[in-house]
Amino acid sequence: MALAHSTAVPAPLARLPLRTFRPQDATDVYAHPRPELARLVKRGVLHRAAPGYFIVVPPDQTGRPWIPNLEATAAGIATAIYGPDDAIVMGISAARLHHAIPRALATAVIAVPRRHRTITLTDRAATIRFLRRDTRKLDAERADTPLGPALVTTPEQTVLDLARWPSLGDTENEVPTAVTSLYRRSDRERLTALAADQGLTTALTRAETWARAAS
User: Fold this and answer.
1) CA-closest candidate to residue 77, choices 32, 12, 123
2) Same structural domain for residues 26 and 82?
3) Which pLDDT belongs to residue 70?
4) Residues 29/33/39/42 CA torsion (nearest 10 deg)
5) Residue 39 — φ and ψ, nearest 5°?
6) Fewest C-beta in 10 Å: which of 25, 118, 128, 154?
7) In this structure, is residue 124 part of a structural domain?
8) Residues 84 and 181 in one domain
């Protein structure tokens, strides 16, 4: 079995999207994945983020304490479940990746095509919440994360989502400021068209009100 350079993690696992996988994703590599993955965690080349979810530690981070940020971790876990085209970082988590919320958060929000229970991480005090949406209709783009490129809602889509669900993620007090920051960067025609297409005109009106109040 070929090994990923300097990681001791088999290359097929190290090459998975966002370096994140579940034991069932490793059955082509190991006949009995769980004890082998536990061994790699002890060696410090594999990071266990939550029960049943593992992240390959970057080669330049082995041998030292390492933990990817919450948004990247959530994107990786959701991608392991739904695939790279149906897991989209949204809401407050998208705002974080767009640098509209400066502080680290304890909740990540991911848009997915089917329901999933909230996942509680074991490597920190944080949770991942999943919101069922038609991911094909969301305005999203690839953005870099410490684990690789992930789908993230655009600033325009993020404005509408935050205004529609301001309490999703327990950061309601920070949402108006984040919306205002993203609104100022948004293409207004694109924003208006998205709101009309997705039935979010009320959310757009709320976002515009916040932006005017901050000016």
Assistant:
1) 123
2) no
3) 98
4) 110
5) -65, -40
6) 118
7) yes
8) yes
The answer on 197 and 129 residing in a single domain is: yes
Q: pLDDT per residue over 193-210, tens digit each?
A: 999 999 999 999 999 999
Query: Which residues have CB under 8 Å from 174's CB, separation 6+?
Result: 92, 101
DSSP codes of every residue in 110-165: EEESS----EE-SSSS-EEEEEE--GGGS-EEEEEETTEEEEEE-HHHHHHHHHH-
Helix (H, G, I), strand (E, B), or coil: what is residue 31?
coil
- What backbone phi and psi angles, to 5 degrees, belong to 9? -95, 130
Question: Cα–Cα distance between 143 and 152 in angstroms, integer?
Answer: 6
Residue 4: the pLDDT is 40
- φ and ψ at residue 63, rounded to 5 degrees: 85, 5
Residue for token digits 């959530």? 74
**What confidence tens digit (pLDDT) does each residue in 27-62 have?**
999 999 999 999 999 999 999 999 999 999 998 898
Range of the domain at 176: 70-214
Closest CA to 67 of 25, 123, 130, 136: 123
Point out the residues of the chain with pLDDT beneath 70. Answer: 1-7
Tell me the pTM. Answer: 0.93
